[in-house]
Design goal:
By secondary structure, this protein is α/β, with parallel strands linked by helices. The protein is built from 10 helices and 10 strands. It is 38% helix and 24% strand.
Length: 254
């Protein structure tokens, strides 16, 4: 079953074509990579798919449901979470509080929460348990009470992933999850991504400049360049594609 599909997505910013008739498909339960040189349109497409960005033409379906008119919060309710290339965290708040924000879609009766009724207290306790479990999975236990702004960039990327996971998503759009990480932290996050996909069954669409990670974890890869589809295939096929090599290196294969 196809989890997410976009067809013919076109986005212009003034006279600049950010996405030019882009189409991709993400099968359920798979990790799909989206790569391309800087400025290729990857983040714009992510913003379109998560409904933060409007588009000129094309269509998006999520589990065979048309979501062209959905808003970002509606996509979260449908089961799609995302991380951001530019961190979108609350720096003054603690790591735990930031993770708890991701679980907001599981809140129960709003009136009960407003008046602190017993059901609300049970909901709150369950959300804290969920946040702690996610923090443990991402090895954030020793960071829980620290303000996010005091953490290194690599740890903040991990907090953002934890916040996305706290929503219990069926699918996550991961925007450069290992950016700013050293080799050890990147390898650890690579294993976490595999675990979330294989063991928790979360479908993933991944944008990442670390080609080693992309080639190791992705089942299938789409390459875009100058806002348009350039190539797609398995990691092995993409690595050997002359057009992809030319786009990255500026020269064809020998």
């Amino acid at each position: 079953m196809t989890h997410l599909r976009c067809e013919g997505i076109t986005v212009r910013f003034g006279g600049v074509m950010a996405c030019d008739n882009v189409s991709i498909e993400v099968p359920e339960g798979k990790i799909v990579g989206l790569i391309g040189p800087n400025g290729a349109g990857k983040t714009t497409l992510f913003n379109v798919l998560s409904r933060f960005q409007e588009y000129e033409s094309g269509h998006i379906t999520y589990r065979d449901q048309n979501v062209d008119r959905k808003k970002p919060h509606e996509m979260i309710r449908l089961g799609m979470a995302r991380t951001f290339q530019n961190l979108n965290l609350f720096g003054e708040q603690s790591t735990l509080d930031n993770i708890l924000i991701g679980a907001h879609r599981h809140l129960g009766n709003p009136l009960a929460n407003m008046f602190s009724l017993p059901g609300a207290r049970r909901n709150e306790a369950a959300l804290v348990d969920k946040a702690l479990a996610v923090a443990d999975m991402l090895h954030l236990n020793h960071q829980l009470d620290k303000p996010v702004k005091s953490l290194s960039y690599g740890w903040r990327k991990r907090v953002e992933l934890a916040r996305a996971l706290a929503a219990d998503p069926e699918m996550i759009l991961l925007d450069e999850p290992v950016a700013g990480c050293n080799d050890e932290a990147a390898a650890e996050l690579e294993e976490i991504v595999r675990h979330v996909n294989r063991n928790l069954g979360v479908t993933m669409l991944l944008v990442e400049h670390d080609m080693s990670m992309v080639m190791k974890v992705c089942d299938y890869i789409y390459v875009i360049n100058f806002g348009a589809n350039l190539a797609d295939g398995t990691p092995a096929e993409v690595q050997e594609n002359a057009d992809v090599i030319a786009a990255y290196l500026g020269e064809p294969t020998q």
